[in-house]
């Protein structure tokens, strides 16, 4: 009878050990599942943050390039006005310059 009790105790220990292994295995699987979920959540958050930052960056670029475009337009207008002013000045003095050149070319110094 003692050997029956001993074997029954051993059997109970083996069963308890199997149950403990099963519990540990389930816990590991749950842990791995949770780690995968946490990783996926983190990746989604990173993508969302990245897209928000990219949108803010693009908005800032479009705002600054818009003012840059108006600066370019203003500078083009100023340049055109200065070119026109120089052309007018040149046309006013061109006859005097031509006369002065002819005088110096045709005057002979002895």
UniProtKB/TrEMBL annotation:
Subunit details? V-ATPase is a heteromultimeric enzyme made up of two complexes: the ATP-hydrolytic V1 complex and the proton translocation V0 complex.
Q: What is this protein called?
A: V-type proton ATPase subunit G
Task: Output one GO MF annotation.
Answer: proton-transporting ATPase activity, rotational mechanism
Annotated Gene Ontology cellular components are: vacuolar proton-transporting V-type ATPase, V1 domain
Where in this chain does the entry annotate a coiled-coil region? 25-59
Keywords of the record, alphabetical order, are:
Coiled coil, Hydrogen ion transport, Ion transport, Transport
Q: Does the keyword Coiled coil apply?
A: yes
Report the family membership: Belongs to the V-ATPase G subunit family.
What superkingdom does the record give? Eukaryota
- What does it do? Subunit of the V1 complex of vacuolar(H+)-ATPase (V-ATPase), a multisubunit enzyme composed of a peripheral complex (V1) that hydrolyzes ATP and a membrane integral complex (V0) that translocates protons. V-ATPase is responsible for acidifying and maintaining the pH of intracellular compartments and in some cell types, is targeted to the plasma membrane, where it is responsible for acidifying the extracellular environment. Catalytic subunit of the peripheral V1 complex of vacuolar ATPase (V-ATPase). V-ATPase is responsible for acidifying a variety of intracellular compartments in eukaryotic cells.
Classification via PANTHER family: V-TYPE PROTON ATPASE SUBUNIT G3, VACUOLAR ATP SYNTHASE SUBUNIT G
Q: Which organism is it from?
A: Vitis vinifera (Grape)
Give start-end of the signal peptide: none
**Where does the sequence pass through the membrane?**
none
- InterPro entries assigned: V-ATPase_G
